[in-house]
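Ligand-bound model needed. glutamic acid.
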Amino acid sequence: MITRFAPSPTGPLHLGHAYSALTVWKVARDLGGTALLRIEDTDSTRARPVQEAGIYDDLVWLGLDWPAPVRRQSDHVGDYDAVLGRLAQAGLTYPCGCTRRHIINAGAVPGADGMVYPGTCRDRDMANAKPGDGIRLNMRKALAQVDCPLAYIEIGASTAQTTQITHKKLTDDIGDPILRRKDTRDPAYHLACVHDDALQGITHVVRGTDLQDLTPLHVLLQRLLGYDTPLYYHHRLITDESGKRLAKIDKSKALAKYRAEGLTPQDIKHMISFTD
Ligand code: GLU
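Prediction:
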């Protein structure tokens, strides 16, 4: 059994991350497995070394440890390009130069992965890609390649249930996701995450319910790439007093700040109602 905690170093870790990390390590311990740390720093416009250093400090402070070496996705961009090349070879991708403004002006509606792309560039050919273009997955073509029903197993504290994924959910709620960003050429989270989960032999993905709506896309990518689908456990989110989900930008809630104020890991566990 192998699971992972895979933060993006784009801001300080907050109480929600503490809950997630502690849950990942608890599941690994309960099942006699291993918890890995993976740094998901493919967004070159937002990832910061200082935040990565903060992640290591915070996790050590919480009493968590992990086997070396840590996989840092920015060190493996060539791997994700190769994976994307396989999807392109299969005719499942197209180049897209649309800006966010274009997409909004074309009447896009919000979905699970930002705006659902309205399809403006869908008929473009990879052979005509321009240097600054992004690359998208053609969802309809991808689904046409999948021969049997898409599903995954969602586990809970003492339950396991099969979750079916409808094609409609993928076309209407996700659409044609970006797999390589425009301009920066950064690989998208979905591609890097799915590839690394397979490469690292992840058997259990433990992460928050905020990512649950993206799991169908990850399962589809696993199927297209010939990867096994791990078990998924989407844990509850930590909310503030008003029930609002804590965002990374809420710096006042940074774990490092609580630490500087003299709180202990035990105090943190108490605040987020985490029991070992
Ligand atoms: N890097 C993602 C995040 O920080 C989490 C990825 C995952 O657990 O699948 O939101």
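The two ends are 19 Å apart (CA to CA).
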